[in-house]
Amino acid sequence: MADAVMTGHKYVTPTRKRSGFRKMMERKSTIAFLMALPLLILLSVMVLYPFGYSLHLATLNKSMTRFVGFGNFAFLFKRETFWLVVQQSCIFAITAVVFKALIGFIVAHFVHNIPNKGQRKWRGMLLVPWVIPPAMSTLAWLWLFDPSYSAFNWLLSFVGIGPIPWTGDAYWARFSVILVNVWYGAPFFLIMYLASLKSVPEQLYEAAAIDGANWWQRIWFVTLPMMRNIISITVLFSLIVTFANFDIVRILTAGGPIDKTHVFATWAFWVGIQSGDIPLGATVSLFMFPILAVCAVFILRDIHRRGNEA
Amino acid sequence: MKRGISRRELMKTSALAGAAIIAAPYIRGAHAAGKLSIGFWDHWVPGANKASTEVVQKWAEKEKVEVTIDYIPSQGDKNILTIAAEAQAGSGHDIFAFPSWWPQAYKEKLVPLDDVMEPLIKQNGAVNQTVQYLGKSDGKWLAVPATIGSQIKGPCSRMDLMKKHAGIDVQAMYPAGSAPKADAWNMDAYLKAAEACAKGGNPFGVGLGQTTDSTDTAGAFFQAFGAHLVDAKSNITVKSDAVRQALEYCVKVAKFYPADAPAWDDASNNKFLVSGKASMIMNPPSAWAVAKRDAPQVAEQCWTHGFPSGPKGRFAPFLPYFWGIWNFSKNVPAAKSLLTALSQKDAVESFVAASGGYDLPSFESFTTFKTWAEEGPPKGTLYHYPNPHNHQTLSMAAFPAPPKIAQQIYSQAIMTKMIVRHMQGEAMEKTLAWAESEVEGFMRT
User: Fold this and answer.
1) Which of A61, A168, A255 sits opposite B210 (nearest CB)?
2) B439 part of contact set with chain A, CB < 8 Å
3) B108 to chain A: which residues are within 8 Å by CB?
4) Contacts of residue B420 in chain A, CB cutoff 8 Å?
5) CB-CB under 8 Å, B417 with A168
6) Residue ranges of chain B with pLDDT lower than 50?
7) Are B13-150+319-368 and B152-318+376-441 in the same CATH fold?
8) Which of B137, B151, B209, B421 is most solvent-facing, going by the fewest CB within 10 Å?
9) Do B395 and B313 form a contact (C-beta atoms < 8 A)?
10) So what's the architecture of B13-150+319-368 in CATH?
11) Does domain B152-318+376-441 have CATH number 3.40.190.10?
């Protein structure tokens, strides 16, 4: 009895093992995992490690010799400049994303209505701001806004306006950084919305027209519901990128005048690198994470819910 | 007929050029005494890096050390980022060129250099109070003051415009080759001149932004009134009479600066001078050097001189660079030997000449090189730049606060922000309360 069992065991077990491994390898989820593995490793090295290191830095004292727990966070909550930065980051990101989405939506409709033959040229031209590296294009904007030799002011002087302190006055400086961000980011919305518009079935518009829907009703009851998911995803993506913006503000105003255009990333750099307080700089930069995480959860949950409804 | 360049030739040329770029400047001796890597500051002045390469090369050949030099620019704070990265990683260059505040910021990670500095001081003369304040901690030298990159940001005036609008002959006040006759050059004279020049359409080009030029100027004015935000014992002294007096004066005079001064960066004053609009800017001679190239008629009228004096004296911003040795260096003896070689008179004189007089040695006996006397046009325009007659106290904004607190006050431009806030209508006491709260935040250890 015992021999037979052993024999059976000897015979059966390796086959089971082999077939189990084969089965596992044949599973779609395993293949997907293996294919995603290089990206996961890359993300771990490039994102998770720096994130973890930032967390570690944020718990140290200024000279990085002592663990202070949440001391840096508590310290920031008491700083007037920190709350100014929070407020400005929100104003900057929300205003810029709203305008980018609005302009992208409107221009996407214009481009959609251009006959196919000429549409490609327009698409190419309108994408130009988005494909130029922002550090380079912002330098060009800096020259246009230059405190003393602004090309805009020179043009405005012909109609008796100005000179406008584009980067010298707090409100104009905020306007300038938002304007450049909208100029840079609107083409992304345009191209996403254009792709989405092209995928709306023509029959829906025909049905709406038969029902007597006017232009506005077609937009409201057909176009917008069909584009909801893409609008949510672009807004989420843009919100994250805009919140974390560094180059435009850094080049255009460096956070000035009197800190009135600082956003999280520029202030974190100023505090951490330029002022030599790396733990506090890391703490400032980490404040973006919960804000963006909350936005991401709400928007993605909404998309998921609509996906299930569909 | 063959036209242009073939793909194969292009690749070959690119590979050779790439190899040359990666390799240079690479100085190979017989390297019996090991290897050394240096992170020097990448000079603004074209060709100035060559002088340091030559001095290092000479030393490397003599000492049989294999040396690699990286010239790291300060544009975009690349040098500061590299310092932070090397300090975090605990590896990198052996010797690094640290901007003014950074030896103190990383003092725990630097090799003490008393054995290098003490003989150098004996040999070359004393160094000023600012160099000691920034380069020494607990009685130990953290780094050696570097000639390359060190500068005084004093007034550079347009002689013609100052004479025309304000009736001031700056050349007579600061004659080339002799001591200044500038007793009348005080805060009142500066204010009157600023007003007259602004009314004449050529305002003083002084910034009120958040970058170093603006902070340095504001700092020198505060020092002239004895206005300190934090004293040497870390007591906050924002709400003092001296600070009120300095702030009031600075706001009064700021009204005669260009309306967009709060948005100025370190390039703005240079551009303002070269454009021919400015009667005066506060800058080292780099702005004049650019004018010499791009607007010679402007450069011919420029004269570098001293700051106006205030109730507590005459102060000029001095920003020394330092060469320090990281404590993770594997060749400290060679690094110390090189720092000594870089501070010898011949080497220092060659740095000053290569930079057209921009670079300033910190040692007392090195302020009378012929470069400053002979540079022009006009000849002698830089004579008073290195403060040869000790006419003014070379200072650092936010001194005498302990360096780690002062660095925060400086880099966050608290003084210029105070001026702009008060100038834009904020009540004096509210501005002082804001500054006090900011400074309180810098007391973290």
Assistant:
1) A255
2) no
3) 63
4) 257-258
5) no
6) 1-4, 10, 15-24
7) yes
8) B137
9) no
10) 3-Layer(aba) Sandwich (3.40)
11) yes
CA distance B437 to chain A (A): 8
pLDDT per residue of chain A (310 residues) written in tens, 0 to 9: 343 343 444 444 455 555 777 887 778 888 889 999 999 999 888 888 999 999 999 999 988 889 999 999 999 999 989 999 999 999 999 999 999 999 999 999 999 888 877 888 888 888 899 989 988 999 999 989 987 788 899 899 899 887 888 988 889 999 999 999 999 999 999 999 999 998 888 899 899 989 898 988 998 999 999 998 889 889 988 988 898 899 999 999 989 898 999 999 999 999 999 888 999 999 999 988 888 888 888 877 877 776 666 5
Distances, alpha carbon B362 to alpha carbons B72, B128, B147, B340, in Å: 22, 7, 7, 14
Give the end-to-end CA distance of chain A in Å, rounded to a whole number: 60
Q: What is the residue extent of each domain of chain B?
A: 13-150+319-368, 152-318+376-441
B134 touches B403 (CB < 8 A): yes
Map residue B82 onto helix, strand or coil: helix
Task: Note whether ipTM > 0.85 here.
Answer: no
For residue A141, how many other CB atoms are within 10 A of its CB?
Answer: 22
Chain A interface, mutation test: which of B204, B206, B210, most A Cβ atoms within 10 Å? B210
Please report the domains of chain A, with CATH numbers, ordered by start residue: 2-58 (no CATH), 71-309 (1.10.3720.10)
| Cα–Cα dist A65/A71, whole Å | 14
Is the Cβ pair B411, A79 closer than 8 Å? no
